[in-house]
Amino acid sequence: MRPGWHIARHALSGRRTRTILLVVAVTLAAALVTAVSTGVRTVQATVEYRITRSIGNVDARIIHRYGSPFDAGLAEEVRSWPDVDEAAPRTEGALTLARLDDRRDRDGRRLRITAQARGVDTARNEAFSQYDILEGRAPTGPEEILIDPLTGDSLEVGVGDRLRVERFGPPIELEIVGIRDRPILGALQKPKVMVDTSIIEEAIGREGRASLISIILDEGVDVPAWVEANKERISTPLLLEAAERARAGYDRQVRASRVGFRVGVMVSFLACAFIVAIGMTTAIGEQVRQLAMLRCVGASRGQLASSQAMVGLLIGGIGGLLGAPIGIGLAAILRWWYADLLPGGLSVPLEGVLLSVFGSVAAGLLGAAWPAWRAASTTPLEALANRAKAPRRSTILVMAGIGAMLAGLQICLLAIPDSEIRFLVYGFVGLPAVHIAYFLLAVPVFALLVPVLARPVAACFRLPVTLVRGNLHDGVIRLGLTAGALMVGLSVLVSTWSNGLALVDDFRERVRFADGFVMKTGGLGEEEQAFLKTIPGVVAASPVGYLPLRVAEEDRLGTGEFAPPNVVCVGFIPDEFLSFNRVDWIEGSPEVAIPRLSEGDAVLVASEFLIARGLGVGDIIRLGAEGDEHPFEIVGVVGAAGLDMATGIFGIRSIYLDHAVSCVFMDFDVVAERFGTREAFIMQLDLELPEDPTEADAAEAAITEIVREEVPGAIFASGRSIKSLVDEIGGRILAVTTTIASAALLLACLGVGNVVAAGITARGYEFGVLRAVGGSPGTAPRLVLAEITITGIAAAITGTALGVHLAWIGVLMYEDLAGIDLALTIPILATSIGAVVVVVSALLASIPASLSLLRRPPRALLATGRAG
After folding, report:
1. Which end of the chain has less neighbouring CB within 10 Å, N or C?
2. What phi and psi, each to the nearest 5 degrees, are found at residue 571?
3. Short-list 802, 164, 840, CA closest to 495
């Protein structure tokens, strides 16, 4: 047996209790890394899954500006463009569907409907798969069809039934192989089905033509930047644009979740390293003296180094190997508990597992190397005479200075201009620097707390103030560093909660729009608008007008033969509209634009207008009847992500686009003054609905009936289902990340608790002396609890500060890498609860080891030897 292994075996077996406690601490630390990384990756997978299922995974698309079909062969060229992962043509059309048995309804009418059909290449559709399937599967061949619940209810059919496509010519029979999960949102929604492209081509007699080309880009590509860089590859009247996923900002939400994963893994890895390192240096004085004895009997420095390396390798390795599956198991339990919130399934990241094992082993080796270096760097006699010494004030000041410098270094790294390089440097240099900084700063924080809390804590535990103050002062570095290890769980909780709340708030704000819509193609008169405001449950209503206007010949919008003579003028009340809808100002600003609108000579235009027409802020167009045109200045270019998402889900995307590309927005009163009409095409409603979903559905049904009876020709559509979808996604993020952060906090506290318990066990000689000089049996346990109380408070203060610091850096990283401008939010309640948990868990972890001191006589405690 090699001497180093022999020494290591005796060192571990000679202190079995301490060894077991350290292995448990390392196991929990490794489980922390694996659980956090697996949990965060699982949440990330669910976020991507829900966004894909809600609005699709298409990043960009090519459309015809005026809705005409175009050559589907262009998709083959698009696939060769840079950063394109997949591209496929989509053919859209209307199919008249009927039952094969010609069943009739109660009024004797044959059951048949006209549905909006999407034609896909069933051989390539897997990459573009969007729909959740309620029953069955997606079509895999030209004889199959996927329907929605509205189609199934209208035709009274289900999976396995056959339908007939009626057309001019022989009918086409299709088998229903699946029903997609699509919420029924009201009268505005139309039946939608999915079939192979060949079916639509055969039904309408049009081959090789596409309604649009869907494009999926490579991972991590900035969609708006890619669209801008490649828009010149196609010619007018085709248009390359970002899809709803990017237009509504959800591609940034996906990128943000990936940023959160990387940061979470790094933070938990550093937490693991601190816990393991502080555990391995427990009772360092005793370890130094034992190694010095070995040198006295002939052990070489190399043998001491190899023995300590084996100690660190064994404790770190065993803990890492045990902790990784425990962490995955905890994440799996989380996935099972929140199965309805995590439909994306459990996702185990290999990097998280490897980091947990590597971090445990590396920290174990480094922690074990410190006492070996101390013993090898001095003579055996000096090492044998090693005693615990009261720390110098200068040492504490130096630690504070180094901590401040490291924190400052991390802030200075933010000045790196390139965002990708800045993030890499932050992950590998900045994060370790700021964690080491706060780890060291925990010592001066603890030192500052001693004179403030020594007296009240002594009174709480019925101990002499001088005993408590002296013990705290002598152990300020040991206890301060323990607080530094204990703080990491709280910092994870604070930073995760802060960034999570900010992300959810941004998530919801990004798609803010009205609670409901009333639409009438013939226009809503002033009396009808006034009536809609009086419907029970309607808090406020804002009209949106619709008026075609002629463009002066020399100001035609567009190019050549494609220039339309008219635009759609949308009249709206700016203040009311902005209170209902989140508007993104692509050009211009509301502070300048809104007052200009009321002056009567200014308009806003949609972002599609900017792309399709090439006109922007400052340009003048003349609008009105022929011979009576008025000049209007474009004062803003706007987009509304919520309306982008709503139009996609309602199924009126093509109508919306047709209007938007030739659409100007004008003050409602100016429309009335200049063009003599106050009719509204749409009324946006702010509704006050019951919180109970069933009661809310009943209230909306009542509004629907009132609108149908009292405003003939008008239909009501609810936006609540879409908002609920957004709230559901945001709620999933917050609920699950909260659980992950809480689990991380508990794992970290338990890990450090075992380190504390190992420290108590190693200090048996110190407590034996206290008993031998007249201390009561309860003095030592109470003294330990007093130390741990102040240690926990120091950890709570330092951990909160680090968590806020990390949250602030997280806000900057989200803006850099995901393009999301978040506000720094400090979660007061969660932080307070986390701080209490830190103190209480540290006390609970130390109670068993403290109580063990009661059962041991002074002689047994003195026999354990000096640890300090």
Report:
1. N
2. -90, 130
3. 802
Mean predicted confidence (pLDDT) in 131-136: 77
Q: How far apart are CA 396 and CA 569, in angstroms?
A: 71
Q: Which region among 68-82, 172-186, 357-371, 620-634 has the lowest average model confidence (pLDDT)?
A: 357-371
Place of tokens 């924080």: 445
DSSP secondary structure letter of residue 391: P
User: Which are the contacts of 761, defined by CB distance < 8 A and separation ≥ 6?
Assistant: 15, 17, 18, 21, 849, 852
Q: Write down the pLDDT at residue 76.
A: 87
Residue 249, phi-psi category: left (phi > 0), alpha (psi -120 to 50), beta (remainder): left
User: In angstroms, rounded to a whole number, what is the distance separating the alpha carbons of residues 754 and 563?
Assistant: 76
Least confident of 248-262, 423-437, 452-466, 716-730: 248-262
Nearest Cα to Cα of residue 11 among 377, 356, 299, 274: 299
pLDDT value at 375 more than 90: no
Distances from the Cα of 757 to the Cαs of 389, 490, 657, 771, in angstroms? Answer: 22, 20, 67, 19
For 185-209, the DSSP string reads: -BTT---EEEEEHHHHHHHHT--SE
Helix axes 779-813, 476-509, angle to 10 degrees: 40
Q: What is the DSSP string of 431-453?
A: HHHHHHHHHHHHHHHHHHHHHHH
Between helix 250-280 and helix 720-762 the angle, nearest 10°, is: 10
Dihedral sign of CA atoms 839, 842, 845, 848 in order = negative
Q: What is the pLDDT of residue 400?
A: 92
pLDDT confidence tier of residue 651, bands split at 50, 70 and 90? very low
CB contact set of 165 (below 8 Å; sequence gap of 6+): 95, 96, 97, 171, 172, 173, 174, 199, 203
Whether 395 contacts 477, CB under 8 Å: yes
Q: What is the C-alpha separation between 795 and 449, in angstroms, rounded?
A: 11
pLDDT, mean over the chain: 75
Q: Report how far residue 732's alpha carbon sits from residue 42's, in angstroms, rounded to the nearest whole number.
A: 11
Q: 3-state SS string over 54-88?
A: HHCCCCEEEEECCCCCEECCHHHHHCCCCCEEEEE
How far out from the chain centre does Cα 745 lie?
19
Q: How confident is the model at residue 26 (pLDDT cuts 50, 70, 90)?
A: confident
Q: Which segment of 379-383, 513-517, 702-706 scores lowest on mean pLDDT?
A: 379-383
Q: What share of the chain is helix, strand, coil (3-state, %, to 5)?
A: 60, 15, 25
Cβ neighbourhood burial of 385 (10 Å; 0-12, 13-18, 19+):
exposed
Radius of gyration of the chain (CA): 35
Residue written as token pair 């003195």 = 862
The string of pLDDT tens digits covering residues 457-472 is 999 988 888 888 888 8
| Alpha carbon 666 to chain centroid, angstroms | 37
Three-class DSSP category at 721: helix
Sequence-distant (≥ 6) Cβ neighbours of residue 779 within 8 angstroms: 463, 770, 771
Question: What letter represents residue 571's amino acid?
Answer: G
For the stretch 49-93, pLDDT in tens is 665 555 456 778 888 766 678 888 888 889 889 988 888 888 878
Q: How far apart are CA 236 and CA 611, in angstroms?
A: 11
pLDDT at residue 447 in the model: 92
Q: How many angstroms separate the Cα of 809 from the Cα of each of 117, 132, 414, 798, 816?
A: 47, 37, 9, 17, 10
Length of the chain: 868
- What is the rounded CA–CA span in Å between residue 809 and residue 791? 27
Average pLDDT for 31-45: 76
Nearest to 388, CA basis, from 479, 452, 305: 479
Alpha-carbon span 546 to 682, nearest angstrom: 8
